[in-house]
Amino acid sequence: MSKSIQLFDGMTDEQVQTILSKLPSRKYKKNHMLIFEDDPIEKIYIIKSGMLKVYRMYEGKELILGFVKKHEVLGEIELFSDGNALSSVEVIEDGEIYYLSQADFTTLLYENKALLKNIFRIYNQRFKALNRQIQNLTFHSVHTRVCRTLLDFIENSETSTDLIIQHTNQSTIASIIGATRESVSKTFKDLQDEKIIALESKKIRILNLSKLEAYANI
């Protein structure tokens, strides 16, 4: 497990286990609010299991900025900005999370120089993802945005070889791409009619990946 934690990339198992053995953890149930937007944030979180939703409220509507899953880190941006939480974070799948204070995390950075390099790499990944999301919202139709979002889920899924997307629905997709539920529903119907996707119980199955990529202008 330790080798898969993005924050500890390049470190030995022994180094990582030494760090994790000193960290407290807590189990969280689905729907628990871990962080509220604009509240002070004083901890760094490392996801041991489960999944979190990161979002902001805009004009009374929820805009999903992304998801944080197993082995990923959360809260490090506020560490360097010395500000309040930039967004709200909700647990959407039962899980367990390691946590440590910002002071302890700063100490870790001084003791393990590889961590700082990994932090910048994580920043870069998130910047690219945010830039891609802005481009989708600005330049593409709802149909294209839906297809691109489905591909993003497949790319980031731990079971991508199965071409199955879990823990999402049409309302979630609408919140991600900034569209109405009705317009997303119409797109889903079109994709089903063309046998590109199939909706199953709490799952979306990709039936024709190459055609989905074509519609996403990849």
UniProtKB/TrEMBL annotation:
Residue ranges constituting the HTH crp-type domain according to the UniProt record:
140-210
**Coiled-coil regions in this chain?**
none
Source superkingdom: Bacteria
Return the PROSITE patterns for the record: CNMP_BINDING_3 (PS50042), HTH_CRP_2 (PS51063)
Question: Taking every annotated instance into account, which residue ranges of this chain make up the domain Cyclic nucleotide-binding?
Answer: 7-126
- Keyword field contains Endoplasmic reticulum: no
Q: Example GO molecular function term?
A: DNA-binding transcription factor activity
| InterPro entries hit by this protein | cNMP-bd_dom, cNMP-bd_dom_sf, Env_Response_Regulators, HTH_CRP, RmlC-like_jellyroll, WH-like_DNA-bd_sf, WH_DNA-bd_sf
Q: Does the record carry Heme as a key word?
A: no
Keyword line: DNA-binding, Transcription, Transcription regulation
CC terms in the record's Gene Ontology section: cytosol
Write down what this protein is called: Transcription regulator hth crp
